[in-house]
Specification:
The complex is a heterodimer of chains A (528) and B (293). Chain A is built from 23 helices and eight strands. Chain A has 528 residues and is mostly helical. Chain A folds into three domains: 198 residues, no CATH class; 160 residues, no CATH class; 138 residues. Chain A has a four-stranded parallel β-sheet with strand order 2-1-3-4. A four-stranded parallel β-sheet of chain A has the order 6-5-7-8, sandwiched between helices. In chain A, strand 3, helix 16 and strand 4 form a beta-alpha-beta unit. In chain A, helix 7 crosses helix 9, helix 13 crosses helix 23 and helix 17 crosses helix 18. Chain A is globular. With 293 residues, chain B is mainly alpha-helical. Chain B has two domains: 228 residues, Fumarate Reductase Cytochrome B subunit, CATH 1.20.950; 25 residues, no CATH class. Chain B is 64% helix and 0% strand. Chain B contains twelve helices and no strands. Chain B is elongated, with a radius of gyration of 25 Å. Classes of the chains: A mainly alpha (528), B mainly alpha (293). At the A-B interface, helix 1, helix 2, helix 3, helix 8 and helix 9 of A face helix 4, helix 7, helix 10, helix 11 and helix 12 of B.
Chain lengths: 528, 293
């Protein structure tokens, strides 16, 4: 049994992943020995948590470096507990630090812990308890003496800190465990607070989220690196595609002042899944919606990676998105199919966007549902007569309660729609949450596919257990870019398209596929 | 004489320290939202699946009232029946329920004693003794079985702290000594008065009252304060879905919070020459960063 104090143990790997203990999948995915390990981390990269690395950490080389690391960490803890530096989450943090009964009720709700076959290093309370003990020992009056008396002492060294930080990136922040907690203690919040200490005080965060994510977005306008001109060109190209493929003459409106709707996509869609913005353009034009897109900095990309690791980056992006909408004097912002973009903009930034920055923000799923209800689209559900199931993005569903609009749509236009188990607010995370879907450095991808996404894959396969043949084309609807990214990578890793014929995609695509005026079906049964 | 000083002092510490804890918490800044669904919202269809006002078209146009009644029902179920535990860790549920009901009944027994002192019908006193019997048996069974779970159960063992063991041992001792008192001592007001005057008169009762005093003094400094802090984690965080559009107080508080100084040291945040507040930080460009992992 792994104890919290073991995190400081200098020897070997704390919890080497045992593939034979992973949760079993139905045939032909039941041969665990065939799981490939594709990458090895570079020499010197610390993998002492579980044999994987999300951040590519290197241990301090000298005693002085280690002392600096520890001093900076303790300084970060002080700031985390201060009203000035952490006013945004201090209350939540205090509750989760001080009132856990250590009853372990939450653990069986974690898809990573369960998916791993209950390997102790992934127990959601492990990192929480380590962090809780470190904070108590080093921040409270008499904490060191009390820690020894209580048997709670954890040695604070470079090993502890490297493993603690890596461990904070073994939680997708899905908050399913919090749902189960009788005290509403939040392991995900603690994981995020750990990430914050390291990012905001020590400048340590995954490159994909920080340098190539929020920093890039603040510099160029998008985490994809696309500047306004590039995104104009890309969307123009998609307008041409709509004309050529589907026979519709659409010109996406840009910077239209006073429009009813400012649509902000996750800009990654435009590069990775262009069919999604195309479907939106077709639907909004067909429904006669007054809409626009914005060329302003951060106004054309709904992502906000700060929501996963850094309050400063989060607030900067949120305010810039608000400013883009204010300049255009739109009536409302509609967030495209991007789960964390929903939560960042509509929930967490809600109180930061003060005064005229607080422009009403609505989910695209609600707008699509309203369009369907209005009867303005001519739809033929038989065009979607194939098995469809629905993934619930945690940020939209468990954390925002947007559960039914997408289901109302699917029930109306997909005759073979079926739920996965469990679903709705109790659904499992895709395994790509909290930035994992875009994190592929070192050997983190292998962990993401073998462990983080395994429960989701099982759910999807189970939902289609009545039609497992690849000859029967099936569709998993995931109305979130990060979820789609994770499912795409997961399917590639396990060969799901070849073995089971399951395609993934968004919600708008299914609506577009049902529109009778298109000269060819919108959904192309090609895996990409 | 010792008990005459000890028990009122313990009660004073209990009340004062708990009050300070709650007030200190309430004085922390108004945070950003961090709600989690389902949130109790009456007998609506939406409640069935855990939906929110975000599902409404133009949700901001019509303020949704907080449904205190539904929340109260969930809290009552949680307090009285520990429904989360029953659903998610049924093996632990019965043990915890026994312990919790032991405590509730103990408080109930004290209420009966208080009532019997005020109105003096003998039935009230008899009821108090009966409730204390049930309370002691339930509490002792609950704490003993929880202790076994903590020490032997594979799911809890490695996360059991000495403090958890001590807490259960203390509670078990209180209920055990209470049970022994009921069995040995002819409990009446005169025996209690005699015990207050001389500890050695009824040593078991004295031990029980000393343990109760110790518990009252110790309780406010432990995680057992979840008994009331749970209110803040459920109502203040998990169920707090009040948007700025309907809650101008929260927005006003955030405006003040944005004027707070910030001193995080990472290169993308720290600029000692130009930025001093969160408001400055939010509106400033991020500095390039060289310390990244």
């Amino acid at each position: 049994m792994l104890k919290p104090s073991d995190i400081a143990s200098e020897t070997g790997t704390l919890g080497e992943l045992h593939s034979d203990r992973l949760i079993s999948l139905p045939p032909p995915y039941d041969d665990i020995s065939s799981l490939p390990r594709r990458r090895q981390p570079a020499a010197g990269v610390d993998t002492s948590l579980d044999g994987f690395s999300a951040l590519g950490l290197h241990r301090p080389k000298t005693v002085e470096e280690e002392e600096r690391l520890i001093t900076a960490f303790l300084s970060g803890i002080d700031k985390l507990l201060s009203a000035d530096n952490n006013w945004a989450f201090l209350r939540q943090l205090q509750l989760s630090l001080e009132y856990c009964a250590r009853c372990q009720t939450c653990v069986d709700h974690c898809p990573i812990y369960i998916g791993s076959g209950k390997q102790e290093v992934y127990r959601p309370t492990f990192r929480s308890e380590v962090f809780r003990r470190l904070v108590s020992e080093h921040s409270n009056f008499g904490g060191r003496i009390l820690a020894r008396l209580r048997g709670d002492h954890i040695a604070l060294n470079a090993t502890t800190l490297c493993r603690l930080l890596e461990s904070a990136y073994r939680c997708t922040l899905c908050r399913r465990c919090t749902q189960a907690c009788p005290m509403a203690i939040d392991n995900a919040l603690l994981a995020r607070e750990i990430r914050k200490v390291f990012s905001m005080e020590l400048g340590m965060a995954p490159q994909e989220l920080h340098e190539n994510g929020s920093m890039l977005q603040l510099r160029t306008g998008s985490s994809t690196g696309m500047k306004a001109r590039a995104i104009h060109n890309n969307i123009e190209f998609l307008d041409d595609e709509i004309r050529e493929q589907f026979g519709l003459n659409i010109k996406t409106p840009w910077d239209r002042e006073g429009a009813d709707v400012l649509l902000i996509h996750n800009a990654g869609e435009i590069l990775a899944w262009p069919e999604n913005p195309m479907a939106f353009a077709i639907i909004l034009e067909a429904a006669g919606i007054s809409w626009t897109m914005s060329s302003e900095l951060a106004g054309y990309d709904s992502v906000n990676y700060g929501v996963w690791y850094d309050d400063a980056q989060f607030a900067r992006v949120a305010v810039r998105q608000g400013e883009a909408a204010r300049k255009l004097k739109v009536k409302k912002i509609v967030i495209g199919e991007c789960g964390h973009g929903h939560k960042a903009s509509m929930v967490i930034a809600d109180r930061i966007l003060t005064g005229d920055l607080n422009i009403p923000r609505e989910s695209a799923l609600v707008l699509l549902r309203d369009i369907l209800r209005s009867g303005r689209l001519r739809l033929d559900p038989s065009r979607n007569d194939f098995p469809v199931t629905l993934h619930d993005p945690c940020n939209m569903v468990r954390m925002m309660g947007i559960v039914e609009p997408q289901r109302e749509i699917l029930r109306a236009i997909c005759p073979q729609f079926r739920e996965m188990t469990p679903h709705g607010v109790e659904n499992y995370c895709c395994g790509g949450g909290s930035g994992f879907a875009i994190m592929s450095g070192h050997n983190f991808e292998d962990w993401r596919f073998m462990v983080a996404g395994r429960m989701k894959l099982k759910q999807i396969l189970d939902a289609f257990s009545d039609c497992p043949s690849p000859a029967v084309h099936k569709y998993i609807c995931a109305p979130c870019s990060n979820c789609k990214g994770q499912i795409r990578d997961l399917f590639r890793y396990y060969g799901v398209w070849e073995k089971s014929g399951i395609l993934y995609g968004g919600l708008a695509e299914l609506i577009a596929n049902a529109i009778v005026d298109l000269k060819q079906p919108f959904v192309q049964w090609q895996f990409h | 004489m010792l008990l005459t000083i000890l028990l009122p002092t313990a009660l004073f510490v209990f009340l004062t320290a708990n009050l300070i804890r709650a007030v200190r918490f309430l004085r922390t800044p108004v945070p950003l939202r961090w709600e989690l669904y389902p949130i109790p919202k009456g007998p609506s269809e939406r409640q069935r699946y855990g939906g929110s006002y975000f599902e409404n078209s133009e949700w901001w146009a019509q303020a949704e009232r907080s449904d205190r009644h539904s929340k109260l029902i969930v809290v009552a179920k949680e307090v009285l029946a520990l429904i989360s535990l029953r659903k998610n860790f049924p093996q632990l549920w019965a043990c915890s329920l026994l312990l919790h009901w032991g405590l509730y009944l103990y408080i109930g027994g004290l209420a009966f004693v208080g009532a019997s002192l005020a109105w003096r019908p003998s039935q009230l006193y008899a009821a108090a003794i009966f409730v204390f019997w049930i309370s002691s048996i339930a509490g002792l069974l609950g704490s003993a079985t929880l202790l076994l779970f903590r020490v032997l159960g594979s799911r809890l063992r490695s996360f059991t702290t000495r403090a958890s063991v001590f807490n259960l041992f203390l509670l078990g001792s209180i209920f055990g000594s209470g049970l022994a008192t009921l069995a040995i001592v002819p409990v009446s007001m005169s025996t209690i008065v005699a015990t207050f005057q001389r500890l050695s008169t009824f040593p078991v009762l004295s031990a029980h009252l000393i343990l109760v005093a110790l518990f009252l003094t110790y309780f406010p400094f432990t995680h057992m304060t979840h008994a009331y802090m749970k209110f803040f984690s459920w109502h203040g965080v998990r169920w707090n879905d009040s948007p700025a559009a309907w809650n101008p107080d929260a927005s006003a508080a955030t405006k003040i919070n944005l004027q707070r100084p910030v001193s995080w040291a990472a290169p993308h945040i720290h600029d000692e020459h130009t930025r001093t507040t969160w408001s400055d930080l939010v509106n400033s460009p991020a500095q390039s960063d060289t310390k990244r992992a």
